[in-house]
Amino acid sequence: MAGIICPYCLQPLPAPPGQECPHCGRDLRNRNPEGALPLGTLLDGRYTVGEYLFSDGDGLCYQGVENAQRSFVRIKEFFPVTLCNGRGRDGGLLPIPGREVLFKTSLMDFKDLYEDLKAITPGEGLSTILDVWEENNTVYAVEESYKGMTLTHYLSLRPRPMAPTEACEMLRPVMAGVAAMHKAGLIHRGICPDNILLPLDGDARLTGYGTLALRTHGSELKSQLYGGYAAPEQYSAAEFSGTYTDVYALAAVIYRMVTNQKPVPARQRRNRDSMEAAHSLESGVPAYFSRVLACALRLDSAKRMQTVQELSSALDDPGVASAMFDRGDNQISTAKLMGIWLVVIFVLAALLLWALLAGGGGSAAPQPAGTAAPAVGGSAAPAPDAGLVPDLVGKNYRQDIEGSDLYTAYRITLVEEYSADVPEGCVIRQDPAAFSAWQQDQTLELVLSLGPPKVEMPVVLGLHETDATKKLDEAGIPYELVYEDVGNANQPFDGDFIGQVVTCSVKAGTEIDPTKTTVVLAIAGQ
Hints:
Layout: E1 42-43, E2 47-56, E3 59-66, E4 71-78, E5 84-87, E6 93-95, H1 100-120, E7 129-135, E8 138-144, E9 148-150, H2 151-157, H3 164-183, E10 196-199, E11 205-206, H4 243-259, H5 266-271, H6 278-281, H7 287-296, H8 308-316, H9 318-326, H10 334-360, H11 397-401, E12 411-417, E13 427-431, E14 443-449, E15 455-456, H12 465-475, E16 479-485, E17 501-504, E18 511-512, E19 519-525
Parallel strand pairs: 12-14, 16-19
Antiparallel strand pairs: 1-2, 2-3, 3-4, 4-8, 5-6, 7-8, 9-10, 10-11, 13-14, 15-18, 17-19
């Protein structure tokens, strides 16, 4: 273990190091979780692994030390929980049998991303990538470490929203950094207050880099999306992301900064768009500024602002924003709307005149009182104020209600909640109740089922039976234990692995219904 550095005071440690640093007295015993690299591990002969910080769908992150410079860094290790079967005795990662090819392609995507980032950093507004290399059958990326706080923490300390000019000035370096990424053909896809750093000695910087698979729901990795900031196209593997995806996220961050409210998640907005304009929430936000944010937060990516430069220039200058809207860019201008309304009024007036002339000719026989006129071209739903509230409980909203001519006259709002009894997408209850009298200007609220509540399968491979079952108990996941002889255990864990989980019937990161799934753990026995 010669050549390692104390991950706390940056002083050289003896070989082998003791349980305490002889310089600062800090405890050097490993407290990193099972499966992570032990504290004090030497990587590439240059870096000392410190404390485990966090994990996401494609890797583990550690505090670390660059030994030659004696400086703190962050080390990201490619470790996809959905493709990895743990770590061997030599520290190398073990892909899940049958998923070796996908593991390798995902690993190369990870490596390519960080090598591309290393090529454009250090740069304005971007956290610097210092090094990328392969070791232990995986890839490591080293990122510069900064003293400061995240934008999330900063906003939590403020009692009032930020002024629009202040917010734009703070994010100007980040916008420049995102524009530099786009110029290099990279999309961030994870812009949010958690991933914006405010260093003590410099301007705001963007971190939280991730591959396309990490930032796309339904991909081969356990996805990591930030609700309220992730664009709608990120919730489907069939939709494409682009520069407009980062534009959405940047606008969402600014919306949070100037209103003190987190944006409504895009997935929820697609069912019922209830996100209020920034100007409505905070009177200090200029109307043009609010309008620009609304344009950049459009659910339809084709109608959204496409570049960071467009967003930045429109937010900074009301004249640029006005000219953009008057040209019809991304949003119909007021002049165009007036023109459309004039055409509609002219057509309605012509139809009314034709109806009066036809009626005067006596060609249409009067109908008895109380008899509804037949609908032209087929049957139509009666006007809501002329009847009773329909019974929609149990119906599938997408298949039976949305777009149906029977319900187009009703103003419907949607609320979602989990239900173990009602199938996903079906109506649990409604307000007002079925068959009650319908009142004018009334809203019909439907509560849709999200299906049974899902829980995420935690990482249990390599854990001792006690720790693994505790995790499952806390998550409310039922389990069954089976015991295997050591000779049959197919997972080589470090040290004595008697009592450890060697196989698990459900992959880590999988969302499961605890009412229908029982997890089977194989425990290494004598």
